[in-house]
Amino acid sequence: DEHWYDRIHMRGYTQIRTGSTVSGDNKEVVYWPDKSVGDNTNFLIRRARLIFYGDVTDNLYLYFQPDFASTPSGSTTGNFGQLRDAYADISFDDKKEFRVRLGQSKIPFSFENMQSSQNRLTLDRADGINTCCRDERDIGAFFYWAPAEIRERFRDLVANNLKGSGDYGVFAFGVYNGQGANRVELNNDMHMVARVTYPYQFSNGQIFEAGVEGLHGRFVTSNGPISIVTPNGPVNITPVMVAPAQGFVDERVAVHAVLYPQPFGLQAEWNWGRGPQLNAAQRLITDSSLNGGYVQATYKYDAGAWGIMFPFVKWQYYEGGQKFERNAPRNLVNDLEFGVEWQVTKAIELTAEYHMMNRTDVLNAPYNQFRADVVRVQVQWNY
Amino acid sequence: DEHWYDRIHMRGYTQIRTGSTVSGDNKEVVYWPDKSVGDNTNFLIRRARLIFYGDVTDNLYLYFQPDFASTPSGSTTGNFGQLRDAYADISFDDKKEFRVRLGQSKIPFSFENMQSSQNRLTLDRADGINTCCRDERDIGAFFYWAPAEIRERFRDLVANNLKGSGDYGVFAFGVYNGQGANRVELNNDMHMVARVTYPYQFSNGQIFEAGVEGLHGRFVTSNGPISIVTPNGPVNITPVMVAPAQGFVDERVAVHAVLYPQPFGLQAEWNWGRGPQLNAAQRLITDSSLNGGYVQATYKYDAGAWGIMFPFVKWQYYEGGQKFERNAPRNLVNDLEFGVEWQVTKAIELTAEYHMMNRTDVLNAPYNQFRADVVRVQVQWNY
Amino acid sequence: DEHWYDRIHMRGYTQIRTGSTVSGDNKEVVYWPDKSVGDNTNFLIRRARLIFYGDVTDNLYLYFQPDFASTPSGSTTGNFGQLRDAYADISFDDKKEFRVRLGQSKIPFSFENMQSSQNRLTLDRADGINTCCRDERDIGAFFYWAPAEIRERFRDLVANNLKGSGDYGVFAFGVYNGQGANRVELNNDMHMVARVTYPYQFSNGQIFEAGVEGLHGRFVTSNGPISIVTPNGPVNITPVMVAPAQGFVDERVAVHAVLYPQPFGLQAEWNWGRGPQLNAAQRLITDSSLNGGYVQATYKYDAGAWGIMFPFVKWQYYEGGQKFERNAPRNLVNDLEFGVEWQVTKAIELTAEYHMMNRTDVLNAPYNQFRADVVRVQVQWNY
To answer: Which of A140, B267, B282, C228 is spaced 20 to 30 Å from B379 by Cα?
Structure first.
């Protein structure tokens, strides 16, 4: 008889962080991806993951990942367990080259979104791309195809510590709700996404991956009162949403290119599109254009008994709406980060970075721009 | 030394759904058991279960089941992990014929409530019976007795894919809080429940189960303002609760009968009782009578390499209060469903059904009746 | 190749409770540590724990403990999964005498706070000490040192059923946020804690442990309106917080002493300090002094086939602010408890106690004092 623990495996990782503003608009710093940055902060559990996974049967692969660093909206207490992934990969051939992924999973758009936070160098993803998809995920159905030898290459790029994305297919196509992971669907429209990517291996072993992707749908954003100063004192005005019944057009096209770090690595992405955005007068939310991306360089240095080090530098830019925050404020980002990820052992990773922020506080009206240099530190343990 | 993974086992299942209203009062469809049905919906994770269970010691059996498709009240983000079951079976004899079950577990009332959603044919339980018990469960203490050979029969009815309920005893008796699973107790009164059921096996192997059950207690319902149109415009009026201090009388008696599908199956239940209900004028919540149930037929068809199929048809009726929704609105249900559960493999099940609804929107005042035909699809994966 | 289930282990425990007020101010009983006590209560799941732990690598020990009896603030539905512990022990030597613990874990202050609720005799910890630290835990970094033979002794005190605390070092020092487990940090200040304890073993095998500990930081409390009766009727007044920008001084020093039950056991702690407290007029929250502790005696009686019994008696006293409740009300406690913990088997424990309460309702203004005798019962199952 078969044992349950051979069908279902468990692993995970946890990240704790702290950040210190060393110069700039100290009191104004509100960085939406990480609440350990800004005034009146210290330690934060950024992610606390348990992953249950395995080949349950020949044609069913399970992936079930709650995160225990999540807070229900409206609650002042946090660190509750909430799904990130809950999907089944159903394969239609022996080599599992053709798969359908059902449930909540990552939307196949971009390279960085696909790459696990367990493996990413910078502490957070770049806004330019990441604003496409709340928590990178949604509920839907996704088709993936990749030849067996490329599936193996995707696997090796992670297993050999080359900062791969995992296997999201050479070709991907999917439909999903479109309001973001763990959110209630708010229209009858479904989002569609398609992606092509290919990791080409040169005869010297170097691997270069490039691809293109696009998504399209309708997004229902939310609005709320903004305090606006008038000659008669402050008044609360709620911006008017100028959108059809099924919500704002939400569409993007992106390109990505990755030279894997053997030892020098280079990674870049850019996307262009349209989505909801608060206008300059902060009275209307309208369908607006957006664009952004990043360029990142790294070097994989094997320090022997001292572990492995990945010094890195990254520049990111974004100009467009922050669709999943209230009022879809305009988000303007021009950030530079440099730092190092030190893999002390296989189980312990320390990342320190200097993050030069020039960005918008998208969480609080009137959505001020701020500049600040922040020293950020993360310890991650893998299990 | 003993291994932890021999004492504690893990399994689970996940369901994703979508529903499409094909005719009827499209905009009015609000179906309380399933938010993938109705306007502005698409995919939904209906259940995402992890089950930790096992014989921890000779006389202690553990069952611990969180569901990761739950939403805290008041939160706009979902898919949090919340208990369904957390109980210990303490047995008093070697054959475990006498057991006490402590913690949160299913209230032994009805057949369909006992049967796991992993095994049920229709996507949701019938309102007539299911309105007895929020999430079928509560915190309490339950006594179960069944002879060893009947325990084995209950087990086989599930193991042999005959859509059994599992072993809730030939005789059951229990006390529990009464406000529903994961709810705070609101009075000093405890509910009581008793149940007798017996799965009789004929000499030709056919198994017929029948039983009777009853519950009694006091239920504290909640009220809130209902907008009522008057000559002077709409006004909000909160219905007055006409109940003693410990809450409304809440009592039911039911009968159930099941012919297990070898290959033709038939299943029926009905219950009668009293409980809180909003009156016709929607000004008072009073102690009122209720009754309802269902009849269901199926056929187990083994399609060889194509898997196993269970075509089914079900009619359900209910007239009575919806006690665990605000204002305990009157719920009138007269639904017909037909469809098929296709067990593609042991791990993958696809259910499609045509659900002809004639029922009340019990979630939104003024609690309109609506009619609609809804095509509903579910994929379930077992692990 | 190594198996995941040898690196990560799973265990846990669940507690259900009920309480009955047998005399005193029956309607006034509100006991903040346990909602199974008081009017309109019956059964409660007090704790439902899953613990994932193990030596992931030679120098990394994992401890990950969600509790599935938690309620997000503001939600009326409970039993959600929320972190208690999520930490990594990183050791710097082969014997693991020097460790740093990162993540959310217990603050090394007091003996009773360190001891697991799985092993404690009384159903709840004493307010005098426990008010130092919401849920005993916080996010931070803690250094622990203990010689290998003392580490073994700490382990044996638990393994041999002597009600030990586990190994929190002979010497401990740490920094942490200071607002409590699963709470958002609200100032730039970090709390500091230090602790020394030593379990001395006499030649006759008796073990006596004593120690001293202190903590210091700034705590940001919250305030809200209190209804105050005036000649013109009730008015809502919100107390004014008299505190510097970074919050109230929050500091304590404590001593503890434990004679382990072989078979007679004695345990005592006391602490003195300062913290926020609502003043007598209930108009101001100010920096005030506090003190409190407890004395507890027990006897370990081995009843052979009937299991093991620990009759116990405990007196506790506290006078000081309840800093983590709104308005930091003054809490005055003078309670006497006696009862017995009956370990029926290794997996099943039954505790019954008679709790003579003389304490403050710290959850509801105007924060009345009440007296009541409560019979309390708990069943715990270990897995």
So the answer is: B267
